Amino acid sequence: MTQYEQKFRDILAEILQLDQAELDFGIYRIMNQKRKDIEAFLNNRLVPEVTKILKAQTAAGTDISAMENEVFSHLAKFFSRYYEGGDFISKRRYKDDAYAIPYSGEEVKLYWANADQYYIKTSEYFKNYSFVLPTSRRKVHFVLRDADTEQNNNKAANNMERRFQLCEEDCIAEEDGELNIFFTYELMPKTTKQDALIKDAEAKIISSFAEEKYADFAGLVNEKVPTEKNKERTLLMKHLQDYTAKNNFDYFIHKDLGGFLRRELDFYIKNEVMFLDDLDATHIMEHLAQVKAIKQVGEKIITFLAQLEDFQKKLWLKKKFVVGCDYCITLDRIPRTLYPEIIANDEQRKEWVRLFAIDEIKGDMMTEGYSEPLIEKFLDDNPFLVLDTKFFSSEFKHKLVGSMEKVDEECNGLLINSENFQALELLQEKYRGKIGAVITDPPYNTGGDDFLYKDNYADSSWLSLMSERLKLSYSLMRDNAWISLNINDIELYNLVNMMSMQDWSNINQICVKMSHLSGMKMSHIDKKIPKIKEQIVTATKGSESTLNPIYEPCSWDDVFSRYVSWMEFNNSDNPKDWTKTTVRAKAKEFGVDCNDKASFDKFRIDNASCIFRTAVDDAVANTPKDGLVRRITTAQGLQKYILNGEDVLFASSYMKPFEEHLMPVQPKGDIWTDIGINNVHNEGGVQLPNGKKPVKLFERLIKMLSNDGDYILDIFAGSATIVHACLNSKSSHKYIAIQSDYSYFNEKTLRRAENVIYSSEWKLDKPVSRKGISQCFKYIRLEQYEDTLNNLQPKNQRIDFDNENGKGDFEETYFLRYMLDTETKGDLFNLEWFKNPFAMSIKTTKDNELVDTHVDMVETFNYLIGLNVETLRYPKDGYCVVEGTTHIGNERTLVIWRNCNKVSNEDLNEFFRKQAYCTTDSEFDKIYVNGDNTLPNIKTDEEHWKVVLIEEEFKKRMFE
């Protein structure tokens, strides 16, 4: 084997991930299962194909070894250009150091390296990668202590890349029965190998276990998880490899890898293989043979790579299952018939003690104090205690939800634990065109936040993340709705330009003071200006949007300096009886010292309805100028007062109520310096090491950009500050908040929502008061892209690539184009799920273990068809009945779920009869039922039936 062929094989091994045999998660696990088929294809079909083509295109006896080397060299050079650390980067080569971008004649063009890719990375495993030891069940954390914050990534471009390395000092510690192992993520020379660093880390950690130290965690270094390559691999090494791989590889999925690589291959051949000036008649056939070999072999590789990428894209875009659905609801909304079950639930009591310190409640003559067990009077006296249905049985939850007459209407909000692209995809049918405002605080890409980017592609990674999520948010917004995005200087320019290239209108910026001139920012004031501000970018869906101006109190002279006249009404409604004087003269008449500003301002504010000025108005310029006030009605039907051919403007008309008093006000501009940034750490009862945004900021944005009753969407929910702001607004706003990290969602997002419902005031993590609000919200958890991959079990079907006499052509076509779709068909959708949908489960990841997780098929389907749920009942064993109206199409809909193992078609027909459901009347426009049935059916139009199988609709909606 020549060095050229070996290099070609090495490149393909890297691209096809044959060098990652130790990884057993995601696409790597699937590729490892198909390893032998891939190697057989390379050895028996692809590499021999080069020789076969060259021999067929050249004269017999021609020495083709040099030509083979040339073909292998070109193929290796071409494919190595675009592949980098698990991703294909869409660099369109023009020549060696020049690139081309797609351009359609726009006046201004913004383009980034990953513009035609989906950003798929999450930060869930970045700062805290956790797992449980299989034998002792003790928990271990890999904790990132010092992440490199070189945002500009300039060093990475200078032969530097970031690597994970075990901390030099205090690298391991046991705390509260759990083991923490600390790492850094620093820029290092590219020659520094991550594999070498984790081998060093393993050795150092193992040495820390000497003398039976950390004995409870001995399984970490003693238990073996062998691979074909490393029979002695320790459990520690497995997790070190997984940890670094999950954070270094697979940032993107290409939207059309096949099309991109085919275009690039054609361009490469024309520009770097076929040099017309070098062709001569004696060697033209050999040269064309090389071109044909490069083209045909390259096309086969591209076809297989496109299959892999398109398969991953299909999994990424698939609507995800709801794998958890619960409700948080205040006690005042719960039927008293459920109180005995609440009192008997000790886990809920413990949670109330943890969250709300109810064990500190002392009784008095009127109220009941804390006791164990709780009693009903205590529940009555604490109506804003937030019950979480996750602590209760499914039967309890069914009774609670079944007691609601309008389920979706009674829910004030929705919290979603999911990567936000997946959540936004699932929300499309139910909320398209329904969101009143998107108000969110995305990652700033500082290098110190939780946003992960590929080395050398910090800005490009961020733009790919934001671009697709803004598009999905746009489709959810109603026409002329607003969006606001908090951002700092790092990505401000890119964000504004990207939104300009999309369909957003009225793009503006608000500058907000967000910190004081103190702390670390002051340590380099001789080199850079301290930054104390951030930006808010606002934009609209449509050009006819209006907002609610924000006013602030000001002094009289700030806005009414020209209002110096006084109107004496003389107890008459007839303007002709009114007389005029000056404000100063009237003040003196009342004994007010006009030089005492405070007294004079109070006098003017209290009498603003009498103080006026006149203003030029061409529409009344021709009216009499005789010193008399007149009341007229305009052509538009408006009444106004005029004097001497000008409008009469009373100061009171331009004042606004503040603290129950009319005050002089002025509208706020695009510089906000009055947002309180002190004492923010106490807001919401959750603590964040890097601080949090003041809730007052988002209260103002909600007031300015939305109307009462609107849905407010936050796609980067963080600690639920925007949920907090909605709850503080004392309006009928509803909220949808999306947060990805499971632990963060539970400890910050969900907890803060519960906290601010229970109490309006917190100090650190304790309620100061117990004045809450009546509320109910739902929270769901979604299957994730990684879960979808981990549930695939490709069939172990060996493919025989026989290269003799044309055999194996069918196998090759199957392998290159259809293998993954065919061999995972039953894993992505299976009719067996619908026989007993109440028992459906999949594997999801918790602490880096795959665990069986219940799938809520009912809730998933409600989102797939966009159903606004009115009632959701479990009337008898084996049935679930959902009634509602679809958001799109406004169809009255009935959904009947049944356990087909218990409920026969005869039972179903009898159930319909007893419930007085009729498939042929007009009560419902659409009826969905799982399992083949014998219900009467009618056509609603030429193509559609009224009674529809859930299985058919489920599959169509999940993959459309």
Poorly predicted runs are 149-155
Strand portion, in percent?
A: 15-25%
Count the strands?
A: 40
Strand ordering within the main sheet: 13-12-33-14-30-29-15-16-18-17-28
Count up the helices: 30
Task: Report how far apart the termini are.
Answer: 47 Å
Rg calculated over all Cα atoms: 34 Å
Structure at a glance:
The chain is built from 30 helices and 40 strands.
Which properties best describe this structure?
single chain, 960 residues, alpha+beta, 11-stranded mixed beta sheet, 6-stranded antiparallel beta sheet, 30 helices, 40 strands, 35% helix
Question: What does this 3D model show about the protein?
Answer:
With 960 residues, this protein is an alpha+beta fold. Helices cover 35% and strands 22% of the residues. The protein has an 11-stranded mixed β-sheet, sandwiched between helices. Strands 21-20-22-25-24-23 form a 6-stranded antiparallel β-sheet. Helix 23 (721-728) runs parallel beside helix 24 (742-758). The longest helix is centred in the N-terminal third of the chain and has 34 residues, at 284-317. The relative contact order is 0.10. The model is unreliable at 149-155 (pLDDT under 50).
